[in-house]
Amino acid sequence: MMSAPSLQNLGFARPNICQTPKPKRCLRQSDTMDFNTPAEASHLQWPSAFVDSTMGERLELSEDGACSTRHSGVGRGTCFVGPLTMDKDLTYFEVEIVELEPNRSQTMALGFCHSLPTGNRLLSERASELGRGSYLVGYDLPKLHAHGLEATKIPTKQWRPLKELAVGDRVGLMANRVTRELTVFVNGLRKASVIAPGLSESQQVMPVELFGVVDVYGTVKSVRLRKRGRRPFLETAQTPVQVQPPATVTTSRMSPPSAHVSKNCVGRPTIAESARPNQSDDQAGKRAIGGADSKPVQQCVREGDCSETQGDGTHTSSVRRGLEATLDEVARPAKRLKLLTHPCGCTVHLICHTGTVVHVPRTDFLIGRNPQCANLRLDSPLVPNMVSRRHARIVSSDNGVEINDCKSLNGTWVNGAKADRQTLTQGDVVVIGNPSQGTSEFRFTVSLP
C-alpha cells in the first residue's frame, strides 16, 4: 500500500491560492468621529485640568491636575472645572471613571455653579450643599439638586449611575444657557435631561461663564478629565490570512503516473493504476478519464472502491465517480456571503467605549481570554477571569450576523439581556461578562454596513 502523492506529483499545477495584501482602509465618518463625545458638543472645548485652588479636603490631584482621587472616606470630594465659556449658548465637560469602590450605597454627581466657593479646602460632605447658584445631577436615587435643594427626580429607567457606571465610562454634562436644560451623556449617549430652576424670577438665564462641578462621591473614587478626539484603531489579537476567492485549480496536459493498488485497501486514499505498460502516458490519461478531450484529474480510491487494474486500463464506475467528486471538491470556489460589508471587507465592526473600532475580518470570530485561540483577547486586572478563555463567537452567514455564547461563566449580554444566541442589529450594545461587575472595556456597540 502506498500513500497518496501530492497534486504536484500527479502533474497538477499548484492551486492559485494567494495571500492578498491587507486592503487599504478607507476612513469613513464612523472611523474618524469620537464615539464618546456627543455630536452636540463636537465644537465645544473645556479645560484639561481641575482647579487646584479650591477642592474637597479628601481629594488629591495627579497627572498634571487631570486626575482627581479621593484618598479616604465617602464624601468631601468636590472638585471644579473651569471657567467654562458658552458657545452658541452651550457648555460641556466630561470625565472618565478611573477607579470604583465596591459595596457603597452612593455614587457621583456632575453639575455647574456660577462661581467658586471661598476657601481652598472644602469641608462640605457633598457638592449638593454648595447652595445658591449651583446645579448637581446624580447620586442615588438620581436627582437634580438646584441652589442647595432637591429639585427634580430623575427616572431610574433613564439613568441610574450607581448601577450602571463602570471603570472607563466617560460621563459628560451639557448646559443650555437659555433653556437651563442640563443633559447627561454617558459614552456619547444621551441618558437624561432636566430643566434647572432659575436663580430668581428676574434671572432665568444662566450666566455666560460657569464652573463645572464633579462630586467624587461614594462608589466613584477617582475620575479623570477627558478631551474629545479620535482614538487609534484597536488591533485584534490575531489577524487571519486573507485568501483570494475563488481558489482555482489549473490542470496540465500531463497524465498522472501509474501506481498499483493493493488488495488490502484501508481508509486512506490511494492512487489507482491508469495505464498499461505498452501504452503512452498520454493515451493512458485519455482512456482513464473516458475521452480524448477530458482533462486529467486526481484519481483516488477510497475504502470499498478498490479494484484490480483491468487488462485494457479501465476502472470501475465507482472509482471514476470518486475521481470526479474529488476534483469537484478541490476546484469548487468558496461560497461568497450575500451580506453587505464595510469598505475594509468586514461584515461587522465593534465600537469600543473609547471610540476605537474592532474589525471582524472573518466569518467565525472568537472572543475570549486565551491568547492562543482568541481573535479578540479581553482581560482586565480589575476583574480577572470575568471573560472566559473561549467566551463568545461572532458568526456571519447569509442570514445575518449573530453572537453565540460559548457556555461562558459570566455570560454574554445584548442590550442588557443575557443571550446564548442572538442576531445582531445596528446599534446593539454587547457586553462580554457580567455588566454589573465588569468594566467598560468589555462593552461594544455594533456597527453594521
UniProtKB/TrEMBL annotation:
Source organism of this protein record: Noctiluca scintillans
Top-level taxonomy: Eukaryota, Sar, Alveolata, Dinophyceae, Noctilucales
PROSITE patterns: FHA_DOMAIN
Region named Disordered: 240-321
All residue ranges annotated as the FHA domain in the record: 365-419
InterPro entries: B30.2/SPRY_sf, FHA_dom, NHR_dom, SMAD_FHA_dom_sf
Pfam families the UniProt entry points to: FHA (PF00498), Neuralized (PF07177)
Full protein name: FHA domain-containing protein
Bias-annotated ranges (Polar residues): 240-255, 307-319
Superkingdom assignment: Eukaryota
